[in-house]
Amino acid sequence: MTSPWTAALIAVFAWWFFTGIILLVVRRADAGDAVAHGRNVFLSVPLFALGAAGLVVSSTQMTLSNVYIAFVSTLLIWGWIELAFLSGVITGPERRPCPDHLAGRARFVRAWHTVSHHEILLLLAFLVILTITRGAENTVGFWTYTILFVARISAKLNLFFGVPRINTEFVPLPLQHLKSYFRIGPITMAFPIGVTFLSITAACFIERLIASDTVEAITGFALLTALASLATLEHWLMVVPLPDAKLWRWMLPEARTTLAKEKKHEL
């Protein structure tokens, strides 16, 4: 596990695996009872706590094991927050579809109210992780979260302002109203800004990877390079017509989105 290529492959697998597990849990909850989503979020709190503890412990010393612990711990924290969002537990006060007549600032404000609680939680987690890792020897966890945080904000802005391809196949029942805030159309300035920033970030980590002379630093920068590259790729998949949904569709049960169940979740 000392090779940068091994570290990069681990990052790719972790990205695929964590995404798939979250989608699987949410899909099964969609087919469950009315409290299935909330129950999953509650039962997974220990994973969030494990991630927080692992981040605190691993930040104190820059060792090979701590590099991987920090990376996985941050993914656990991020994964729990995303599960809470996709389950409809932590989203925002507005849970109704966007009226067709809304445009401009009014549409943006309403969209913000649909996800505001989630965005605030992401920001609070960022500030906590910054506090934990500030001045620490191992900052892999901080940079891991920063990449995910910036990429998620950019992706949401692009979905709101408009991109040619939007995959709504995995939008869970509690968040069906969000699809009315997506806009399929030509790219806006949000896309080149986001892609350029993430590409430069990946290039900076590659430069640091090449310049590093310790196994720990090489491994850390290889993980971060792979993650930043994946974030860039995810943005391009909003433009390039590739069947990215097939990466997870095969492992998920069939969605059962009956009208009655959709109405139950909207209440």
Q: How does this structure look, described?
A:
It is a single chain. With 267 residues, the chain is mostly helical. The protein has one domain. The protein contains 10 helices and no strands. Mean pLDDT is 92; it is low at 257-267.
Task: Indicate the topology.
Elements: H1 4-30, H2 36-43, H3 45-58, H4 64-86, H5 104-133, H6 140-161, H7 190-211, H8 215-236, H9 246-249, H10 259-266
Helix pairs in contact: 1-4, 1-8, 3-4, 4-5, 4-6, 4-8, 5-6, 6-7, 6-8, 7-8
Q: Quickly count the helices.
A: 10
Strand content: under 5%
Q: Main beta sheet, described?
A: none
Helix content: 55-70%
Strand segment count: 0
| Poorly predicted segments | 257-267
Question: Using only CA atoms, what is the Rg?
Answer: 19 Å
Order of helices and strands: HHHHHHHHHH
Shape: globular
Given the helix and strand composition, which structural class is it? mainly alpha
Average pLDDT confidence is 92
**What count of domains describes the coordinates?**
1
Straight-line N-to-C gap: 49 Å
Keywords, separated by commas or semicolons:
mainly alpha; disordered C terminus; 10 helices; globular; 267 residues
In short:
The chain is mostly helical.
